[in-house]
Amino acid sequence: MGRDISKTRFTEDDFACFKQKLLEEYRILADWFQSGTLNKREDLCGFELEAWLVDRDFLPAPKNEDFLSRIAHPLVVPELSQFNFEINSTPQHIEGSIFSKMETELQEVWNLCEANATAVDSDILAIGILPTIRNDMLTLDHMTHISRYFALNDQVFRMREGQAIELNIQGRDQLNVRHQDVMLEAVTASLQIHLQVSAEDSVRFYNTSQILSAPMVAVAANSPYLFGKDLWDETRIPVFEQAVRMDCYRDSPDEPLHRVTFGSGYAKETILEPFLENLELYPVLLPQVFDEDPRYLSHLRLHNGTIWRWTRPLIGMDHDGTPHIRIEHRAPGAGPSLKDVIANIAFFVGLMYHFTQQEIPLEEQIRFDWAEENFYQAARNGLSAQIRWTNRKKWDMQTLFDEVLIPAARKGLQTCGIVAEDISCYIDDIIRNRVRTGQNGASWQRAFIAAHGPDFQSMTKAYFENQKQNIPVHEWEV
Predict the structure, then answer these.
(1) What per-residue string of b and e applies to 219-229 under the rule 16 or more CB within 10 Å gives b?
(2) Given Cys at both, which of 169, 304, 327, 346 links 426, Cβ 3.0 to 4.6 Å?
């Protein structure tokens, strides 16, 4: 959720001052694009992995504050609920053995998290939606005590004029829930992949990331159950979209924009376009005014952090204050194993570097409305989905992976100079076998319940034991 703020209540003057500073910082950003300030390209990749604290019965454990105070690690940070935390990675140059290095670092931090969770009588788990979570656990009493989260809750319901959140998901079962706070968002744990790119390359990378959201959400699907209901393969997608829903409108109420969204279209000329859309079409939620150099873009970055596109452009700052552009890809769910997490990252990076180097841009071959429809079909049906690709015909997902996407990812990684051992481990041994068996996290969970009945605690225990051994999900037995 980004940087914390010092206030939870705001005045009209706060909103007016914030909007003035937001406009000033947008002009600075536009000048950076025009002057070439953002054209330096370092091929860097990093990620954020959200995870759960669970008790010995595999129920969510609201202990992240004790856990985080014990661990005191710069890469481990809080999340919205006291059940969750997030592990960040150190950005790595996309070359050589980047992915095995990423896995080593992640495993080291994970081991440290495990040890500190044990000290507060808990375990840790990476999964899109924890199958044992209950609706009555999602209360403000279990919100992490950070001002930003309470302010966000207040502002969401101010914009909704006090109307309850209505979660309505039609999957294999149907779920209807009403909530008077934003804590429904806390049931979703994601893997967020970051690529640092230059301004001149950012449009291609942004658009390609949107298109790749469909295969990424399909291959990484890991959230079929919520509150005992069998819903989408990646139920995390509709939950997050509805959990903080506030309609923001264009000139016509027939075209609503949402705070959590696939997006409204490809970028055409510059990656500034989604930032301009943020400025003009999305009301400010958190008007915290900072007394900082406007070149730090504090207000623009805070506002951007309250608009959750599944692919989101970010402006970051290097340690020396130099600005850079990152593309944040938010489609995959967390888990199932750490090896699976790194394989998902490697697959995405390979696809991105293959397709962004093609002579004909992917967005000229796949219309935006197809990409959007593909995304939701893949979130619903995972590796069983059918999606429309470049030749306009519909492909079943597994054939598209075998014939197009896996070879493309291999070529993309080879182009980046990734060592053969990493390509073999993460693409051939994990992604290819996951697709061929059809067993991702979602299908394994469903197979377990089909075999053993709706015993979600036993399923979560089995999931935990497989994850602890770092076994790729395609090898898990039911």
Answers:
(1) bbbbbbbbbeb
(2) 346
Flag whether 297 is in a domain: no
Q: Does the residue 35 lie in any domain?
A: no
Under a CB-based contact definition with an 8 Å cutoff, are residues 318 and 324 in contact?
yes
Q: Is the dihedral of CA 179, 180, 182, 186 positive or negative?
A: negative
Q: What is the DSSP letter of 361?
A: -
H-type helices in 189-311, by residue range?
Answer: 199-219, 236-243, 272-281, 298-304
Contact 237, 379 (CB under 8 A): yes
- Whether 2 is in a domain gets the answer no
Number of domains observed in the structure of the chain: 1
8-state DSSP, 394: E
Whole-number CA gyration radius for the chain: 21
For 359-389, what is each residue's pLDDT tens digit? 999 999 999 999 999 999 999 999 999 999 9
164: CATH: 3.30.590.20
Query: Residue 15 falls within a domain, yes or no?
Result: no
Q: How many whole angstroms separate alpha carbon 226 and alpha carbon 189?
A: 13
If DSSP codes are grouped into helix, strand and coil, which group holds residue 188?
coil
Name the helix (H) or strand (E) containing 150: helix 147-159
Separation between Cα atoms, residue 94 and residue 391, nearest integer Å: 30
Which one, of 141, 138, 183, 124, lies nearest residue 335 by Cα?
124
CB 306 within 8 A of CB 272: no
Which contiguous run of DSSP H or E holds residue 130?
none
Cα 4 from Cα 335, distance rounded (Å): 27
Per-residue pLDDT tens digits for 413-457: 999 999 999 999 999 999 999 999 999 999 999 999 999 999 999
> Amino acid letter at 93?
H
Q: How far apart are the first and last CA of the chain?
A: 35
d(CA 328, CA 421): 26
Look up the domain containing 101 and give its range.
Answer: 40-276+304-475
Q: Is 324 helix (H, G, I), strand (E, B) or coil?
A: strand
Angle between helices 98-119 and 64-71 (to 10 degrees): 120
DSSP per-residue string spanning 400-443: HIIIIIHHHHHHHHHHTTB-HHHHIIIIIIIIIHHHHHT--HHH
| Per-residue confidence band for 411, with pLDDT thresholds at 50, 70 and 90 | very high
